[in-house]
From TrEMBL:
Superkingdom as given in the UniProt entry: Bacteria
Entries under Gene3D superfamilies matching the protein: MetI-like
Protein name in the entry: Multiple sugar transport system permease protein
Species annotation: Alkalibacterium olivapovliticus
Domain ABC transmembrane type-1: 71-284
């Protein structure tokens, strides 16, 4: 049965409506605010053009220093979280794919269920685990006669705590995406590779990975975007410390808007953050789907 253009348009209308209401309008409004001297309490203080952006990008003022520090922290977290959240998730998926049917369902559930936990609960658990005084990990270390570690008050331990919480919390989602992709790989390709004498690594590199490459690139992109939006873990576990070394871009934007009462500057920071994310995503997309020159 054919669906008329009118019916198909009506089915698309809810998505378009929500896209306009909850993305397009807020984005355009935020862009508008970023060109003004705007406070949360006092409202619009007048048009300032690109002044907010210039102050953020020009050295020698607190907005530049805080933004660049947060940008560096965020990029650092993106880099250190990429391998655990993508490669380890793929390894988990490969292991689960080779488990018998009923056990496969069990382990998929076990690894995915943590994703349903709120960031507040996850942060509370890992803050207790890594607390310097009376924390579970330090108690274990002391039980073995080792010195305790100030996990949340020193680097690189603070990042280790944040990374551990993030991996435990979100790796299951990426794993499920990879498991579903692996399920779609044609078994006849593995059989042909085995007949040609391919070992496990050769089967993975020449059969499995090319078949799931699109999903791998997609998972990498959404992981980078998610890591760029780091907020809850650092806010609740390390509070941006020690010495603002885990202060993320989202945290500094929130601090600029609500603590410093500067909505215009915070909006400009958010727009710049979005531009950086779009640029990085575009680079990932182009690299991930570039044509093979030898094909």
């Amino acid at each position: 049965m054919k669906i008329s253009k009118t019916v198909s348009s009506l089915m698309f209308l809810p998505f378009l409506l929500f896209f306009i209401l909850f993305w397009m309008i807020p984005f355009l409004y935020g862009l508008y605010v970023s060109f003004h001297s705007w406070t949360v309490s006092g409202g619009n203080g007048g048009f300032v053009g690109l002044d907010n952006y210039i102050r953020i990008l020009s050295p020698g003022n607190m907005y530049h220093d805080s933004f660049m520090n947060a940008l560096g922290n965020t990029l650092y977290f993106v880099v250190i979280s990429l391998v655990p959240l993508v490669v380890f998730a793929l390894l988990l998926a490969l292991l689960i794919e080779n488990i018998p049917g009923k056990l496969k369902v069990f382990f998929r559930t076990v690894f995915f269920i943590s994703y349903a936990v709120s960031v507040t609960a996850v942060s509370a658990i890992f803050k207790w685990l890594f607390t310097g005084n009376g924390g579970y990990i330090n108690n274990v270390l002391q039980g073995f006669g080792l010195d305790s570690i100030g996990w949340l008050n020193n680097q690189p331990y603070a990042w280790i705590a944040v990374l551990a919480a993030t991996v435990w919390w979100t790796i299951g989602y990426n794993m499920i995406l990879f498991v579903n992709a692996l399920d779609e790989v044609d078994d006849s390709l593995y059989e042909a590779a085995s007949l040609d004498g391919a070992n496990a690594w050769q089967r993975f590199w020449n059969v499995t990975f090319p078949s799931i490459k699109g999903v791998f690139v997609f998972v990498t992109i959404i992981t980078v975007i998610a890591s760029f939006n780091l907020y809850g873990q650092t806010l609740l576990i390390t509070e941006g410390g020690p010495a603002r070394s885990t202060m993320s871009l989202t945290m500094i934007i929130q601090n600029t808007i609500f603590s410093q009462n500067n909505l215009g500057m915070g909006s400009a920071m958010a727009i710049l953050m979005g531009i950086i994310m779009v640029f990085i995503t575009l680079v990932q997309f182009l690299i991930g789907f570039r044509k093979d020159d030898n094909a």
